[in-house]
Amino acid sequence: MPEWNQETAKHLIEQAHGQEKPVTTALRLLQDYFRHIDARAIPLLAAIYNLGPAEVHGIISFYADFTTSPPGRRIIRLCRAEACQAVGADELAAHAQKHLGVKMGKTSADGGVTLEAVYCLGLCANGPAGQIDGELAVHLDPEKLEKLIAGPPEEDAP
Ligand code: FES
Prior knowledge:
Helix content: 40-55%
Number of helices: 7
Distance between the termini: 20 Å
Bound molecules: FE2/S2 (inorganic) cluster
Structural class: alpha+beta
Oligomer: single chain
Number of strands: 5
Largest sheet: 5 strands, mixed
């Protein structure tokens, strides 16, 4: 995950602003690059978009997809949409929260893992579906999920 860099953040925001894109585009660029929206980006966004800092905070908190916290080293995403629910996604989510000791949508205190809900990964016929460190996973059950979580993160894999 890239470290905070004021110049990079400013460049990303100015890029969106220069193309007359909404502030949400700048937020998306920041989050894609830094993997979260650092609090230090808020005054930059406010200045460039001529908004108050509270307005920027409001926009960030309105969209569930934006996060101001850095993600964990592992990111477990589980589909909570209807087709996956019909084949056990709720039970799987409950198991994952218990197994990882972290609530859905949160990152563990040690920064080790983030557990996120997603709403359809396009794998509806093969649910419950999820994504473990970016890798899609299908036909998940508690045992398979634990096995995937126990494996190394993708970047550490041989
Ligand atoms: S509903 Fe889960 S992948 Fe579509």
